[in-house]
Write a structure and sequence with these properties.
Length: 475
């Protein structure tokens, strides 16, 4: 055994935590394992759409890293740079800048959402990448409905009630389905909001949803979503985003006060630092690796997950940037690293995808598992069973199961959570929300006339012909 004792992993996502757990089992305790990540938890991204639709609480889709690991030392810190020659990295921590020595260093720091993909996206669209994004979108939905209760201009009300999702991949389809379910189940708490005033539109630039799945499943998803009242705009590209408007490539303008963007990633900023300081080879922002996931030309460095470009020997193609591949790479890298330390030969990454599935709303899903395609309720149940199984730690699994079960009997949560501290209670919050303190006497205000309330018709406003969201409470 060589004296290469310090194994440091950067990133506490799917790849980093799976690797640490696998190494804990494979390596003797003489090896020191350290995981550095800038958040104290790992986010179960495939369930972020469920947070948007309040099917689960945000805490249910995140797992504290310290509870996932047994003997790996966890350091909450943001890695700033790597000094390869001296075998150490620098990171900012709660205790200031720290240096951590390594013998082996694994890059597993993922990617970021790309808000520069389409002009105006950063200013006017909401990304869905972090749990904070999901909670923000959920709050925005509740806020739009609360505002609709107070507005009387039908055009403005329609704009507020229109939610546009950009991207018809897994996250886009799941978010659109969740939003439709959420709006249907919470509308009864907003009695002045008419069903016809609410709409969800899904924009996708190709002709088929879920292009990673067989065409028949993409079509099944589209059929179900259209029947549910979701407006599908396939083969439609967004040209730019403006305030409350998406301008399409053909010049058409779609008005909607909330735009959720599920497309586009960009490299983690650390990649640029490593390119500059280590002359690390990358392609399209992903770190180039050898077939065994070691970094090209730099012994002791390894890369896995979304930040790495890893060839898959089973298909002769690049690995997909998905959780499934991140986990498979982490498991194999653990064996490769253990083998390397025992001076055995490492193996090229090889993985046969087991399939994919998506929840499409109203207790329906589409799935392809081991080449077998199915849709509807069975696919939705399989989706839930899989994610329950995959959710790390028994505690989180039980909480998730309890939450899903309880939500069948109780109304969906409509808490618009504001993290206001006592010291901030008198300040005007950003984003146009009302302050907690009473306004100064004489402050100008738009008067809400009694007829504004009573005048809001019980029958729908005259509306442009468009499908409306159908269905009532969902599970
Ligand atoms: C909304 C959404 C839905 C998805 N749905 C699915 C799905 O259904 N199925 C599927 O297979 N995949 C899905 N994915 C993709 C999947 O989440 C990713 O492929 C997977 O998370 C990649 O794992 P990773 O460990 O490489 O990166 P991440 O999970 O992104 O983890 C990276 C970690 O590195 C940390 N980090 C970043 N920079 C630093 C730094 N400088 N210093 C220290 N730590 C740092 C981050 O905090 C994070 O913990 C989805 C993704 C999103 C956003």
């Amino acid at each position: 055994m060589l004296a290469e004792n310090n194994i440091v992993i950067i990133g506490g996502g799917f790849a980093g935590t799976t690797l640490a757990q696998a190494l804990e089992k494979l390596l003797p305790t003489t090896h020191r394992l350290i995981l550095v990540s800038d958040e104290s938890y790992t986010t179960f991204n495939p369930m972020l759409a469920e947070v948007v639709g309040a099917s689960v609480f945000p805490e249910h889709v995140i797992v504290p890293i310290r509870q996932m690991l047994r003997r790996t030392q966890f350091i909450m810190g943001t890695v700033q740079d790597v000094n390869y020659a001296q075998g150490k990295l620098s990171c900012t921590t709660l205790a200031g800048l720290r240096e951590i020595p390594f013998d082996h260093l694994v890059f597993a720091f993922g990617t970021r959402a790309n808000l520069d993909l389409v002009p105006g996206m950063a200013e006017h669209a909401l990304p869905l990448k972090l749990v904070g994004d999901a909670l923000f979108i959920r709050n925005r939905v509740l806020r739009q409905l609360a505002r609709m209760e107070l507005e009387s201009d039908p055009v403005l009300r329609r704009r507020l009630g229109h939610f546009i999702v950009v991207g018809g991949g897994f996250s886009g389809v799941e978010v659109a389905g969740e939003l439709a379910d959420y709006l249907c189940s919470i509308r009864r708490f907003y009695p002045r909001v008419q069903r016809e005033e609410l709409a969800v539109t899904l924009l996708h630039d190709t002709g088929q949803l879920l292009s990673e799945l067989p065409a028949s499943l993409g079509m099944a998803a589209a059929r179900h979503m259209a029947a549910r009242g979701i407006r599908l705009r396939l083969g439609t590209r967004a040209l730019r985003f403006e305030a409350d408007t998406v301008v399409l490539a053909d010049g058409e303008m779609i008005e909607g006060a909330t735009v959720v963007c599920t497309v586009g990633t960009r490299p983690n900023p650390l990649v640029a630092t490593l390119e500059r300081n280590l002359a690390l080879a990358t392609r399209r922002g992903r770190i180039e690796t050898n077939p065994d996931m070691s970094v090209r030309g730099m012994p002791g460095l390894w890369a896995i997950g979304d930040c790495a470009r890893v060839a898959n020997a089973a298909t002769d193609e690049d690995s997909l940037p998905t959780a499934q591949f991140a986990v498979a790479q982490a498991r194999q890298l653990a064996h490769n690293l253990a083998g390397h330390l025992e001076q055995r030969e490492s193996k090229p990454f090889s993985y046969q995808s087991k399939g994919a599935m998506a929840s499409i709303g109203h207790m329906k899903g589409v799935a392809q598992v081991y080449g077998f395609s199915f849709s509807g309720l069975p696919a939705w149940l399989a989706w839930r069973a899989l994610y329950l199984m995959r959710m790390p730690t028994l505690g989180r699994k039980l909480r998730l199961w309890a939450e899903w079960t309880l939500s069948m009997f109780f109304p969906t949560d409509i808490t618009h959570l504001r993290f206001t501290r006592t010291s901030e209670a008198d300040e005007s919050p950003p984003d146009g929300l009302p302050p907690h303190r009473p306004q100064a006497p004489g402050a100008s205000a738009t008067r809400i006339a009694t007829h504004d309330f009573s005048g809001i018709p019980r029958t729908p406003y005259a509306t442009p012909a468009a499908p409306t969201l159908t269905g009532d409470q969902h599970a």
